[in-house]
Amino acid sequence: MGMSMNVVVLSLFVSSLLLSVVTASDDGLVRIGLKKKKFDPNNRLASRLESEDRQALIASMQEKYGLHNNLGDHEDTDIVALKNYMDAQYYGEIGVGTPPQKFTVIFDTGSSNLWVPSSKCYFSVACYFHSKYKASESKTYKKNGKPASIQYGTGAISGFFSYDNVQVGNLVVEDQEFIETTKEPGLIFLAAKFDGILGLGFKEISVGKAVPVWYNMLKQGLIKEPVFSFWLNRNVGEEVGGEIVFGGVDPDHYKGKHTYVPVTQKGYWQFDMGDVLIGDKPTGFCAGGCAAIADSGTSLLAGPTTVVTMINHAIGATGVVSQECKAVVQQYGQTIIDLLLAETQPQKICSQIGLCTFDGAHGVSMGIESVVEEGNGKSSGVQFNAMCPACEMAVVWMQNQLKQNQTLDVILNYVNQLCDRMPSPMGESAVECGSLSSMPTVSFTIGDKVFDLSPEEYILKVGEGPQAQCISGFTALDVPPPRGPLWILGDVFMGRYHTVFDFGKERVGFAEAA
After folding, report:
1. Which PANTHER family does the annotation name (predicted)?
2. Which of 335, 371, 407, 412 has the highest CB neighbour number within 10 Å of its CB?
């Protein structure tokens, strides 16, 4: 690590915190308006103190994605494990009970449950800093009592299910099943400005098989159309933070027409996307397709380390040096290039040179726990295991350069530079604030359209003047097939592009935000 900027972690992406304002509407739409609050430095402190748990968080994510390939396998949801709600920006207010007890929640398209702190949360400090639901004060409360737990990688929130009315805007959803949390461990929930989460994902990933709020809105005839949409105002100088519209779309929120893509796997709002471009040049990594999720519960853009490293190199972001990556280039660089020139299938190269095994579709780590080197007794199994993904990244990078007709020396030098730009796992990458004008556009291919992000849109600035820090909005997340490669398109993307979640037609739409 060794850099002063490394204390800047995911929570720095919280450039503003928001509270909701409900506005009346004559067009049959229900609008939840958002207001901004200043960034709270306490979030940075909490995230610093929790940063030691990030390796465990990554391991938890990779294990879950690798082992649980069917959404219905168990009650926990895969997407919840990758969430660190410290970096979420957009909040709204709901009411639970009769009369309504107010709670600030994240409207999260990456999960499906509603939870708020319970008055029976006695032993978690976080509960004493947030609103708590008091069942005894609600005329419409109904007991359930079934235990509930949601795993977040660095700890689980737990509690029990209850039923009560839930007010969203001017709508009242009756007999909604939700979780009263009695345990909220860690500093994440202590420093957070939200009380709970309102999930807007599909029922397939709902913990405890609870019917999501959105489903009950439709079932009880409260919504005009089975559609909701997000407009997120990224202009930090304006008071209005954005708006969530239930029942349709507001034409004032976007320009032109939406590009729609079908939901490919119900649970998350997941769809197929094409290649990622840096400065109008294709990276090639997602040329054969990648999965993507539109997620309002995170402000970042998370994607494969291979591509995030290429982006970091292009924008001058400082990451973590990977010795395994450089070792692959030094020992096998020439061989990889020779095999690529001989038109060997790229996905088989790392298995041919002995760093991976080939499972018929892609290379996988050989899983050797310990290989004792002669003479010194050192175990090199961990390093050898790490060289498989490093090799596969090097293959993609070298293939990209060969397509540009670069020389051997140029290719090897370029790949070595990329090794220096590899990001910390789920961590930050710092950039010079004065260099934005020289940074390239980064683009995503969705449907038949290319969606551009400018440096001003994907770089997140924290603070003002000489103390300001600029952070890349891209973070690394490696999800193996068949679930991956996977991109999480959070608020950085949804801020530029108005997003429509069409439940009726099972599709997601993007158009330039107004």
Report:
1. ASPARTIC PROTEINASE A1 (PTHR47966:SF76), BETA-SITE APP-CLEAVING ENZYME, ISOFORM A-RELATED (PTHR47966)
2. 412
